[in-house]
Specification:
The structure holds two protein chains of two kinds. Chain A contains three helices and six strands. Chain A is an alpha+beta fold. Chain A has a single domain, classed as Yope Regulator, Chain: A (2-Layer Sandwich), CATH 3.30.1460. In chain B, strands 2-1-4-3 form a four-stranded mixed sheet, with helices on one face. In chain B, strands 5-9-8 form a three-stranded mixed sheet, covered by helices on one side. Chain B has a two-stranded antiparallel sheet with strand order 6-7. By secondary structure, chain B is α/β, with parallel strands linked by helices. The chains are: A alpha+beta, B alpha/beta. At the A-B interface, β5 of A face α5 and α7 of B.
């Protein structure tokens, strides 16, 4: 496994390669919150590997890559003690509607992050669901590059 | 009583008839050896069968050079109707879903549930796996990861947190998976009993369940493993050729009685399962529901299903089919 720079933006392996990303927001029945599902392929249509994805411009993680446990099939945060189970961040799963295999950001921690922002923010001037969803996008935007990539 | 059903679920097997795809066979293959029959555990997964299939089918059919060059990560399985079989679905689910789907097609009239289960015909391809339908990185490691995800989701649905699963030490989590690989019931339930719920004797009273004895005296709600105290049963409904349905499913209705399978089915599919005037729900259109290869009576309580007929990953998979 090659050394990965801590800041993904500094990676130079994919400077101008096009990738096609299919992004979906799906309501997770289990966690009762929206979840971000996506799949990505390169110019030839082959699916991109997870290490390649995490180094691409799609993600701008607030954590250095060296703190994460990056495997071919999952990315997690090592647990607090050496024998504790890891905390999943990015895993693969079945898209709830299409049944296709996608990557998704684990919604487990999302609710907590949204609640924290809501607790510290101004009271909503609109329906709480809309306010919650906007806050969710803020949380998502901290990790995933949501604006269109401009050259 | 629950351990009887847990043992039955663990020991449950289904017949598979595995055939190598002609396109995967080079001309030097022995085509006399056609199909390999295997009685596979319901709670296991297709990729875990690969070593046995390799030894008993591929090594015999293919010439030495081809057999040695096989890459197991390129293997994939399909049913007759070009339906790619998902690696991360338990074999029992693949089997039940296959036959309930078959039952719904007009040209097929399957014998009633009481007759012997037919083998499920599967075609094995040795190369060019379809990238988007299988696990994105087919390997036993990613299958294990998927299994753990399912366990955590089930844990979350039951209790609103994944504390029980994440509270396990890594060696215990690994132990769950190893027990499935080795098909060891005792090893599995030694750890499984910490996270999977226990059913109570059926009772319409909400507060009839004794809490699990807790030495430090904290509230029973934090330590109970009562199947009827869960928020929601981890349960999925499978209709032929449709997206999987998963909704919150409380073990207790608003009236305080235990939710039955009939309640759930008539609420989810009112056109297939009608709610009768009395307690007993009836299926009016030949629709039936299969769990672990059995058709539970519609009065079966879902709380009990969650404790006794769930798969190793904690999920109750209900396949709905139609019978003439």
């Amino acid at each position: 496994m090659p050394e990965m720079p801590d800041d993904p933006a500094a990676a130079t392996e994919f400077p101008s390669e096009r990738m096609t990303v299919d992004e979906n927001i799906v309501f997770s029945s289990t966690f009762q919150v929206p979840a971000f599902y996506f799949s990505a392929s390169d110019e030839s249509g082959s699916p991109l590997s997870l290490p390649a994805l995490i180094r691409s411009q799609l993600f701008h993680l607030p954590l250095p890559l060296s703190t994460l446990n990056i495997e071919q099939h999952t990315i997690d945060l090592p647990g607090p003690e050496s024998d504790a189970s890891p905390i999943p961040l990015l895993t693969q799963g079945e898209h709830p509607t299409t049944g296709r295999m996608c990557w998704f950001l684990h919604p487990c921690e999302t609710s907590g992050a949204v609640k924290e922002l809501l607790d510290h923010g101004a009271p909503p001037g609109e329906r709480w669901e809309l306010h919650w969803l906007k806050t969710w996008f803020v949380v998502l935007g901290r990790v995933v590059y949501l604006r269109g990539i401009s050259v | 009583m629950s351990s009887l059903f847990r043992q039955m679920v663990w020991d449950g097997t289904v017949p598979l008839a595995i055939k190598l795809a002609p396109s995967s066979l080079p001309s030097s293959s022995d085509r006399m050896l056609d199909t390999y029959f295997i009685q596979a555990p319901r709670i296991s997964y297709l990729p875990l069968l690969i070593p046995e299939i390799r030894q008993n089918l591929c090594d015999l059919v293919l010439d030495e050079a081809t057999a040695a060059a096989l890459r197991e990560e390129d293997w994939w399985f399909e049913t007759e109707k070009d339906n790619v079989l998902k690696w991360h679905w338990p074999i029992g689910l693949l089997y039940d879903a296959h036959f309930t789907t078959m039952s719904a097609s007009e040209s097929c009239f399957l014998p009633s549930a009481s007759s012997l289960s037919p083998p499920m015909p599967i075609t094995l391809y040795l190369s060019n796996p379809p990238a988007d339908k299988l696990l994105l990185t087919p390997s036993v490691e990613s299958l294990k990861s998927s299994f753990m995800s399912q366990c955590k989701e089930a844990d979350f649905l039951r209790w609103g947190s994944t504390r029980r699963m994440t509270g396990l030490r890594k060696t215990e989590q690994d132990g769950l998976w190893d027990a499935i690989r080795e098909h060891n019931y005792d090893n599995f339930w030694k750890i499984g009993s910490k996270i999977l719920p226990n059913p109570n004797p059926p009772s319409p009273l909400l507060n009839s369940s004794p809490p699990t004895p807790n030495p430090d005296g904290t509230g029973a709600a934090t330590t109970t493993n009562d199947a009827y105290a869960v928020r929601s049963i981890p349960l999925r409904l499978f209709l032929p050729n449709a997206p999987v349905i998963q909704d919150l499913c409380s073990p207790v209705t608003q009236n305080g009685v235990h939710t039955t399978l009939g309640d759930l089915l008539s609420a989810s599919f009112p056109l297939l399962f009608s709610k009768g005037a009395n307690i007993q729900n009836t299926s009016i259109s030949g629709a039936y529901a299969v769990v672990q290869g059995m058709e539970p009576p519609l009065e079966t309580e879902v709380g009990w299903l969650g404790a006794s007929l769930a798969g190793a990953d904690g999920w109750v998979n209900v396949c709905v089919g139609l019978r003439a």
